[in-house]
Specification:
2 copies of one chain form a homodimer. Chain A has about 350 residues and is of the alpha/beta class. Chain A has 12 helices and 14 strands. In chain A, β8, α11 (about 250-265) and β9 form a beta-alpha-beta unit.
Chain lengths: ~350, ~350
């Protein structure tokens, strides 16, 4: 049996024109901000439009203006609450200027190209990448098409890609100083993925400080930015012969896994037996189940800078890529032993300044 | 000083045609799946397109076909990891058929209309709403425009809106039975927002069971689906003269807040002193910091049904709204005292069947 498909045609500009008894171009002008049309005519048109459910077609308009007001967001790790915050902030901040996110979730670690080539086909105004990578081919394609790329929280060697990130080197140095001055002797670092430049910068800051303080052995394991891999990494650290008493994790989300394993599986007390510090300051870090000391990466500020860059690149397509670092703070909660001094209190948090 | 704006025009179909030495319509056919064009010609065209960064314009195509392959998603509570899962699942499942999410984050509890009227202007194929509400006016507008609306995890009195939800009544009944058979005497319910029909259904199931078992007093407080309000609600419950020893929360996210307050502020042991059960089964519920007993709402299945409904509504615009319930399970972990029997083990979890 062949089912007869009902068709319900969406109302058009011409339908509105007929109903309102005006020309089609009057309808078009009535829906164009700033265009000239008599007040009475405009009201008649808006009334007719509403009565038949007509919507001005922004797709058609973006074909004419070559601006869609759509920003593609490629995101690779929505399980991590930090990236859920990035999505929320980007959506809310773009909405203030009438722009919206076209969302592409991409496999973690893998290149996001196949999905993102489609994004280009939608004539997006810009491409934001978070926990997601583009190939050199895709980057070149974007540049040819005049679509700026901004990465959040990721480094790249590719030319022409703008980047916004937190203070990665300083995060590592400050956490190392905090733990060292609290009297720790045995250190470990739970890294993200092996190819994560962000994780490498944090590790570099951490090791540089500790080595200059005379600490020679700093064990590194990979938590791959997931809860599961970080749990496995924590087990391997804590079941070793000479386990660490201070663990720095390249993300809060991995620090939660380390705390879970340390307390539930190894019966350790945090911070009496072991100190754990993360990076990000996701909302869960403030919940008392974890009460995590962490170096903050303010998602709101990162997104604000990313949008600034997009606007600059759109206004001036010839300009070079922009790199922007957003300052963070070491927020002191209950998951790590503390040095004697160096603290201040700001409005929300206790901060350590070294 | 007026800055001279550089313009870099995106390459067009006609640019590709010139470069490849073919007609514009050949270029158009080369980018249309199934259209007839000689293999050698197609390759020449694709090569020319790539060399100048041309992308077929899906916006233009969607004007012709009246299908944009864009689904608008209005979401009101991305802090809650359940909704982060919904976004991820919807994005991944839609991508399998080459469709993508245009994201609208909406104020929690408020009507999402102003943002969503813009969604209609983008000629979206459908509108999915999660933790977000539409007015009757917007609903009518969508119906006139032939855009189906599917709500995830929310009830509505409005006609023509399809809904996908979990087993809300059964969740309440089963949790009540579990707690009652474990020997509890003093019950409380931490509701979502006052106007949440989902929360009301869970409460109704919970109270119906307990009342029929002879329990008369069941205290209800509102956690508004946020961590902060649920913490305040928990404080008021636990500082009362005769505090509950069994608390059912309308979401896992609120249950985490209740556990934090009970253990850290009131020094209670979960589950020895107090049992806490949630709804959703977000990944964090399985982390050992919370180890939460909870009634599951499988985000993947909810999204799958939502997409099924969208496809049916698009194929047959005249059909009536569809309501679909997705089964869940009471997943037993460590946050509540247990009845003597009624358990089975499936692949991943220990389940209680009553």
């Amino acid at each position: 049996m062949i089912k007869k498909e009902k068709t319900r045609r969406a109302p058009t500009e011409s339908d509105v024109a007929k109903l309102a008894g005006v020309s089609q171009s009057a309808v078009s002008r009535a829906f164009t901000p700033g265009a000239s049309v008599a007040k009475a005519t405009r009201e008649k048109i808006l009334h007719a439009a509403q009565s038949i459910g007509y919507q001005p077609n922004l797709l058609a308009r973006s074909l004419a203006t070559r601006r869609s007001n759509i920003i593609a967001l490629a995101i690779g790790n929505l399980e991590n609450p930090f990236y859920a915050m990035v999505v929320k902030e980007l959506s809310e901040q773009l909405a203030e200027t009438g722009r919206h996110i076209l969302l592409f979730t991409t496999p973690k670690g893998d290149e996001a190209d196949p999905a993102l080539e489609r994004a280009l086909s939608y004539q997006v105004d810009a491409l934001v990448m978070a926990a997601s990578m583009a190939s050199i081919e895709l980057t070149m394609q974007c540049q040819k098409a005049g679509v700026p790329i901004v990465q959040i929280n990721r480094e790249t060697k590719l030319p022409g890609i703008s980047t916004v990130w937190g203070e990665n080197q300083r995060a590592g140095e400050l956490v190392a100083a905090f733990l060292y001055k609290a009297g720790h002797k045995k250190y470990a670092f739970v890294a993200g993925t092996k190819n994560s430049s962000i994780s490498q910068m944090r590790q570099n800051g951490f090791e540089t400080y500790l080595k200059s303080a005379g600490i020679k052995k700093i064990k590194t394991v990979y938590g791959d930015y997931t809860f599961e891999a970080a749990s496995i990494a924590a087990r391997s650290l804590l079941s070793a012969k000479n386990p660490p008493d201070a663990i720095f994790c390249a993300s809060d989300y991995m620090a939660f896994a380390v705390i879970d394993v340390a307390t539930r599986e190894f019966g350790l007390n945090v911070p009496k037996d072991i100190s754990v510090i993360g990076v990000d300051n996701v909302p869960e870090a403030g919940h008392s189940a974890y009460d995590l000391t962490t170096f903050s990466q303010p998602a709101g500020s990162l997104v604000e800078e990313a949008i600034n860059i997009i606007d600059k690149m759109i206004a001036d397509p010839g300009r070079r890529a922009i790199r922007c670092e957003v300052a963070g703070e070491l927020i002191v909660r209950g998951s790590a032993k503390e040095p004697k001094d160096g603290f201040i209190n700001n409005v929300d948090n206790k901060i350590w300044l070294e």
